[in-house]
């Protein structure tokens, strides 16, 4: 039963077998949390949004055709949830939970090294938060979620070439911001 494809599971959910949604949740809730967390920077809000995305999957299951990849459809729903949140909050600032990352980084490292890594991560997260939503989104999808450009193009409803250009520009902008933050320290 676990060998069913994502599309097959979602088609079963669409047909009324709502128990299959649990398998999809187990497969994707961490990945989805990572995407949402990198986009909004808040752990609590990301957890809530994951729940909202899965709720919307159930609510809008009739829109899933099975023609494209389930993941693409899931990310479309996640993007809509982010847009709704942004409209509600009118562009809130990003508050990254660096303590969570620091604990992961510190495991087994010398205190100096852990502090240095924590500072680098804080600088990177700060720089990422200063990127435009458009640039942050393509970097999160390509670098953190490890999606292929082809899949990102389907999610963003654009061409693969446009995604490549956007990622390149986003990385260039991220580097500028990162270096300016480093220079300020």
TrEMBL record:
Residues 114-141 form a coiled coil. Residues 24-91 form the RNA polymerase sigma-70 region domain. Signal peptide: none annotated. InterPro entries: RNA_pol_sigma-70-like, RNA_pol_sigma-70_dom, RNA_pol_sigma70_r2, RNA_pol_sigma70_r4_t2, RNA_pol_sigma_r2, RNA_pol_sigma_r3/r4-like, WH-like_DNA-bd_sf. Residues 123-174 form the RNA polymerase sigma factor 70 region 4 type domain. Keywords: Coiled coil, DNA-binding, Sigma factor, Transcription, Transcription regulation. NCBIfam families: sigma70-ECF. Belongs to the sigma-70 factor family. ECF subfamily. This is ECF family RNA polymerase sigma factor SbrI. It comes from Nibrella saemangeumensis.
């Amino acid at each position: 039963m676990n060998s069913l494809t994502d599309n097959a599971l979602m088609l079963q959910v669409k047909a009324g077998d709502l128990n299959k949604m649990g398998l999809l949740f187990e497969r994707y809730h961490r990945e989805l949390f990572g995407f949402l967390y990198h986009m909004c920077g808040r752990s609590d809000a990301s957890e809530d949004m994951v729940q909202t995305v899965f709720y919307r999957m159930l609510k809008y299951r009739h829109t899933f055709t099975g023609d494209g990849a389930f993941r693409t459809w899931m990310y479309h729903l996640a993007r809509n949830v982010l847009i709704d949140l942004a409209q509600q909050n009118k562009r809130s600032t990003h508050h990254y939970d660096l303590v969570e990352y620091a604990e992961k980084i510190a495991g087994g490292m010398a205190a100096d090294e852990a502090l240095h890594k924590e500072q680098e991560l804080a600088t990177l997260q700060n720089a990422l938060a200063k990127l435009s939503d458009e640039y942050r989104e393509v970097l999160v999808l390509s670098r953190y979620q490890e999606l292929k450009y082809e899949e990102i193009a389907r999610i963003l409803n654009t061409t693969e070439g446009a995604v490549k250009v956007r990622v390149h520009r986003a990385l260039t902008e991220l580097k500028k911001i990162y270096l300016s933050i480093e220079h300020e320290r």
